[in-house]
Amino acid sequence: MNAPKTDKPPLTEPAPLPTPENETYLTGIAMPLGEAVVQMTLGGQPAYGILQRSRAFTEQSDFFRVQFRGYARQADGRWLPMEGDDAQLHNTYNCAWVRLDHPSRTALFGPKGGIQLTPAFAGSGLDTFLFAQVILWAKGVRPDYSVSPGLVSMPSTTTEDERLQRNAFYASQGFQFDWQDSTQKTALYFKEKVGKLLGVWDAQAIRPFNGEDMLRMLAEQDTDRYDLELRLHQLQHRQQSLQMALQKERTTAQILMGVTVAALLFGLWAVL
């Protein structure tokens, strides 16, 4: 007897996922989203810069990037404009990005070699601030996506303090590590879900301003300037009053001196 026929199709393997789109391509098609003013501290003195946000959409990807350029810093009581690389927007320096790949439901953070700063911003906490911005954006868009491992590698000349600082940079945002060598200088950083990352920075050292914050600050400065002008006017009025009083005293003294002299002269004339 022949075996009964079935209508079930033969089992087939699922189609392979497409290769994630290149971040260089996505960078090229990203459109600006807007800018924000950022206040920070450099060498113990206040400084200001501009944070630019951009985003690219494709059927496969969602790409978000932040770039920072310095504007001015205070030195010896004067405001000096930032110059050179510190005042420019770069694709490799003073920036961070994240690429969401929808087919694989993964998020990749970059730059792949880690966030690099131009010399003026070294030690300012700008790298942590930029990293936190892309983490917060990704958490708000696709918190359920997993984090694609990113590779960080440090040269053999790296000191123990430098290694610990590098590890603390990623650990402070909630990343885990998969060490690639016994000295823990090369590692893959990852996380099960984007939503479990933190996205934090030192808000006392770096503070972004949106449009409403800027208007509030300008209004406060106008109020402070008005108060200073009022105090100056009051001081000037007081100075004028004192000058008038002083002049009156001088005039009175001169009159009294004249009367006294006249009286003496009259007395001498009477005696003679």
Topology:
Blueprint: H1 23-29, E1 31-42, E2 45-57, E3 61-75, E4 78-81, E5 95-101, E6 106-110, H2 126-141, E7 146-153, H3 160-171, E8 176-179, E9 186-191, E10 206-209, H4 211-271
Parallel strand pairs: 6-7
Antiparallel strand pairs: 1-2, 1-10, 2-3, 3-4, 3-5, 5-6, 7-9, 8-9
Structure description:
The chain has four helices and ten strands. With 272 residues, it is an alpha+beta fold. It has a domain at 23-209. Strands 1, 2, 3, 4, 5, 6, 7, 8, 9 and 10 form a ten-stranded mixed β-sheet that branches. Helix 2 (126-141) links the parallel strand 6 and strand 7 (146-153). The chain is elongated, with a radius of gyration of 35 Å. Residues 1-22 are annotated as: Disordered. Residues 1-10 have a biased composition (Basic and acidic residues). It comes from Gulbenkiania mobilis.
N to C succession of SSEs: HEEEEEEHEHEEEH
Which descriptor suits the 3D outline? Answer: elongated
In helices, the fraction of residues equals 25-40%
How confident is the prediction overall: mean pLDDT? Answer: 88
Organism: Gulbenkiania mobilis
Keywords: Membrane, Transmembrane, Transmembrane helix
Protein name: RING-type E3 ubiquitin transferase
Compact overview of the structure:
This is RING-type E3 ubiquitin transferase. The chain is an alpha+beta fold and 272 residues long.
